[in-house]
Amino acid sequence: MAEIHALSPRLANQIAAGEVVERPASVIKELIENSLDAGADKIDVEVDAGGIKRMRVRDNGCGISEEDLPLALARHATSKINTLDDLEGVVTLGFRGEALASISSVSRLSLTSNSSGSGAGWCASSSGREMEVELTPAAHPLGTTIEVKDLFFNTPARRKFLRTEKTEFGHLEEVIKRQALGCFDIGFQLTHNGRVIHALRKATSLAERERRVASICSPAFMENAVYIDTEAVGMRLHGWVALPTFSRSQADLQYFFVNGRVIRDRLVAHAIKQAYRDVLYGGRHSAFVLYLEVDPKVVDVNVHPTKHEVRFRDGRTVHNFLFSSLHRALADVGPKDHLHAAQ
Ligand code: ADP
Ligand code: MG
């Protein structure tokens, strides 16, 4: 056996990248989350070749100061938490301080930012080869632009796992859809190979929100959905649930957010499935865009780096609340008798 030695920072970052950076879509997710954490209300995403060749995320958030730029790319460097106590009530999407370090270790990354609004900003770039960061002055309005080129150019084994441009773009677009459904007060634009795919302006009123949902989930979904908004035991559930007149052969139109964060959770899935049980044919899947709001203290989001999972302090109460809210909404309008007659 060889002697024990410390991993070089670059190799450590590349190993960490294995956890968070799976494909272009995961890069976009991390970059958008950073833009949201920076308070941006306009996020432009531009990608080429499904994101494999180039991805660029531009925001109008708070920007990063010149002193902080190199730190932004360093591992375990974050502006979002200071103590373990902060982790308890974490409200930002990021907090691990790992994403940019990981992404920059497996791509050619450049970060241009301006935190003063003066029009004069700074650009930092790192080529993935070594972790040194070069700073040059650059013009940029208040906010940040991050460009990621040639993902996995230096990790051929990982690159092999990338699928076709079309498949990668599909994953990437899904990330944008989730974010756009999660943040109505943010304007999003997605451009692929020079073509604008989604142009979503800030949606404030219910009508504007419904227009956004229709453009993301299809007009047919919206036409067959009811809007619910219920509150009980310190929780609020609101959003759109499709009536049985709009069911899917796949579970591909199911969006569930907890405090603005899209999640996948067995308990949640089970509660919803139970609520639909009497009104959907077996083998058909429900469609919904739902938002659960709870006290951040009763939900743990620090379960997995990709943060799709959560752990509720009191799962039973959450399950009951979801089931009863949805069951009621569907029972009010559900054509249950008609379905049984048709079976
Ligand atoms: P985390 O988001 O977990 O803190 P990241 O590696 O994603 O870690 O980002 C590191 C730091 O860089 C952030 O804490 C933040 O201070 C800064 N940063 C990254 N992206 C942006 C952005 N778009 N606007 C402003 N600051 C940013
Ligand atoms: Mg982050």
Average pLDDT, rounded to a whole number, is 89
Cα shape: globular
Strand content: 15-25%
| Number of β-strand runs | 15
Assigned CATH superfamily of the largest domain? Histidine kinase-like ATPase, C-terminal domain
Q: Measured on Cα atoms, how large is the radius of gyration? A: 22 Å
Query: What is the CATH class designation of the largest domain?
Result: Alpha Beta
Distance between the termini: 67 Å
What would the CATH topology of the largest domain be? Heat Shock Protein 90
What's the story with the biggest beta sheet? Answer: 8 strands, mixed
GO biological process, one term: mismatch repair
GO cellular component, one term: mismatch repair complex
Keywords: DNA damage, DNA repair
Protein name: DNA mismatch repair protein MutL
Structural write-up:
The protein has 343 residues and is an alpha+beta fold. It has 2 domains: 9-200, Heat Shock Protein 90, CATH 3.30.565; 217-337, 2-Layer Sandwich (Ribosomal Protein S5, domain 2), CATH 3.30.230.10. It has helices spanning 9-20, 24-37, 69-72, 84-88, 99-105, 156-159, 165-182, 206-217, 219-223, 266-276, 315-333, 336-342, and strands at residues 42-48, 54-59, 108-114, 120-126, 134-139, 143-149, 187-192, 195-200, 225-232, 235-242, 254-258, 261-262, 288-293, 299-300, 311-312. The chain has an 8-stranded mixed sheet, with helices on one face. Strands 9-10-13-11-12 form a 5-stranded mixed sheet, with helices on both faces. A two-stranded antiparallel ribbon has the order 14-15. Helix 2 (24-37) runs parallel beside helix 7 and helix 10 (266-276) runs parallel beside helix 11 (315-333). The longest helix has 19 residues, at 315-333. The chain is globular. 36% of the residues are buried. Bound molecules: adenosine-5'-diphosphate (ADP) and magnesium ion. Adenosine-5'-diphosphate (ADP) binds next to helix 2 and helix 5. Magnesium ion (MG) is lined by residues 30, 33-34, 94, 99.
